[in-house]
Amino acid sequence: MYVLDVSITNAGYQDSRDAVRNIRFHVGAGELVGLIGANGAGKSTTIKAILDMLPVMDGEVRFPSSKRRYAYIPEQPSFYEELTLWEHIEFAAAVCNMNRSVWKSRASVLLNDFKMEHVIHHLPASFSKGMQQKLMIIVALLTEPDVYIVDEPFIGLDPRATKQFLHYIQKEKARGAGILMSTHVLDTAEKYCDSFALIDDGEMIVNGTLDHIRKYTELPGAALMDCFDKLLG
Amino acid sequence: MKQTFSVKTLFLQRVADHFRQLKALCKTAIDWIVWLYVILPVLVIGGYNYWKWWRDEWDLSAMMFPIETIIFAVLFLLMAAGSLRFFIERADQLFLRQYHHGYRQLKKLGVFYSATVHFIILVVVFAILAPLFLVQLEKNIAFLVALFFLCWSGSLLIPAIRQLLQFRFRGWRYYIMNTIFMGSSAAVYWGMIHLWDAAKTNQLLLMAGCLLIIFTLTWFVLVVRMHKTSVFLDELANEITLKYRFMSTMLMSAGMVGAPQFQQVKTAKSNKRPWFFRKSGTIFSKRTPEKVIIELHMKYLLRNKNRRMLMLQLTGTCLFALLILPSVLKWIVWFIAIIMFLHLNNSYVVEMKRNTFLRAYDWEREKLALYTRKSVFWTNFPCMTVIGIVAGAVLFPWWGIVAVGSATFGISYLLQPLLQK
């Protein structure tokens, strides 16, 4: 069963209408798909196209679940400077119509796990980049959506928070959530992702499991990094 | 060929870039056709009133508000709003900052630039106020000139001292020190003007003496300010705030908020917790998407100093205009105020809706439009109440407060969907 089905013919901006082209893949329930590519390959643009944040979009993005529930963790933490950490959590819970006792207990666990309880009434603008990223992760995990769309989650996170995040990702997979994760950290991606979508110069090069990519690159038993290197030559 | 590095050229290039940006902004962000409808009548009405200020003498004793105090207060506020710009940039930390002489020269040129800009602004303001001083308040030319130089000097002295306080104190300590300083400055300013006004003999000598003291103090403080080291990040934060102060106001008014990606510079100990709703308190007990959007909008205004101050300043300006203008113009001001606040709050809504955090949720467009319409109504509520009451009180007897107050809300509510972006 798919939770996200992406079919982009072309998408981009007014001055570059086909920044990404011919991107087709899907994310299944309980599946973690790694969106990988070099700097400027079009990973973040693809994510923006999926989230309907681009002025030009020719294609279709389907969330087969009737409620279209997704959570987005952007590469650059995005928040309201005028709201505290707790108010962001409350905002997300209210927008998703969550039961008060449910979201409160869930928030308490997440804040404790990500070591953020001491700053709940602080403004995120005073946080470090890593703490701001944790805010994004907490708010996303709080709502337990069907799909997670995660853009470069490891930037700025300390090792402990990275481990905690990966632990939650596994937990959410087990719950049945689908995850699309764009990343540069290929060894982590190789260890945790079920399949990959490799993008170069705005176009999809290959899509499938690591075994499929190994066959495609004719590098049996090779690491994802080596396949990536060969594909991008 | 040996190439020499000139701080002066660098400075001039940065100033030129700044003005180029402003010019581009004026071209793109402002709908000049719409503004012509505002500017032309303002120029005509303003020009006519200005001519009348020179020609007709007012009966000051019959006026319901102290015009002299208001003018001096406005001049003080203008002085307090002065700024010191050095045109430093983030990349200066890599190279220029290591060359103390060049870096100080850049600051010196910045002081010269700030002094020139304030001089020009004050010339315009004093030219406008000249008939009030010379004809209505019957002050002499010497008083006007001395007041001009006092304001000019103050517009450099006050920001310089405030910046020094900013480097030394943080958070609530800064607010206390700043309040004490501004209070003392106002006392000195008021005292000096009173002294000049009361002097029957040797007024010229007194004014020259006072100005000499103020100029010396300004020079001394500016030297201290320029020699202040290890405050690069604060200086940069200050510079970015000043650079975008004018631009963001223009963009807000033009409804293009959020167009440039402003770089945020975090100072060492910026406020960690907000002043209002310190413990993340809620405004509405019911937590529905509608209520949290309204609450977001309210906190968006309350917790941001620039937005809060802009709303207060605009309300103050409208009230001032309602008090001093003739009846016909009062009606125009009242109507413009309704449109202006709707426009401003709708611009904030556009800015709020552009945030990725909000966009990451799946909103139904119609519902979000309805929620934001309600949020604009509630955030407009305090300003509309004050303006409606004052307009009613100055235009009609007691019942005008109720009638104009209600009309203000009614018109504001009816016009709101038309101005929604």
UniProtKB/TrEMBL annotation, chain A:
Keyword hit for ATP-binding = yes
Please give one Pfam family short name.
ABC_tran
Keyword list (alphabetical) reads:
ATP-binding, Nucleotide-binding, Transport
- Where in this chain does the record put each ABC transporter domain? 1-226
A molecular function annotated in GO for this UniProt entry is: ATP binding
InterPro entries in alphabetical order: AAA+_ATPase (IPR003593), ABC_transporter-like_ATP-bd (IPR003439), ABC_transporter-like_CS (IPR017871), ABC_Transporter_VariousFunc (IPR051782), P-loop_NTPase (IPR027417)
Keyword DNA-binding present in the record's keywords: the answer is no
Under the heading PANTHER family, the entry gives: ABC TRANSPORTER ATP-BINDING PROTEIN ALBC-RELATED, ABC-TYPE TRANSPORTER ATP-BINDING PROTEIN ECSA
The name on file for this protein is ABC-2 type transport system ATP-binding protein
Organism of origin: Evansella caseinilytica
From TrEMBL, chain B:
From which organism does this entry originate? Evansella caseinilytica
UniProt keyword list: Membrane, Transmembrane, Transmembrane helix
Protein name, entry field: ABC transporter protein EcsB
InterPro entries in the cross-refs: EcsB_ABC
**Is Transmembrane helix a UniProt keyword of this protein?**
yes
Native organism taxonomy: Bacteria, Bacillati, Bacillota, Bacilli, Bacillales
Any single Pfam family the record assigns to this protein: EcsB
Q: Which GO terms describe its cellular component?
A: membrane
**Chain ranges passing through the membrane:** 29-51, 63-88, 109-135, 141-160, 172-192, 204-224, 309-325, 331-350, 371-390
Per its UniProt entry, which superkingdom is the organism in?
A: Bacteria
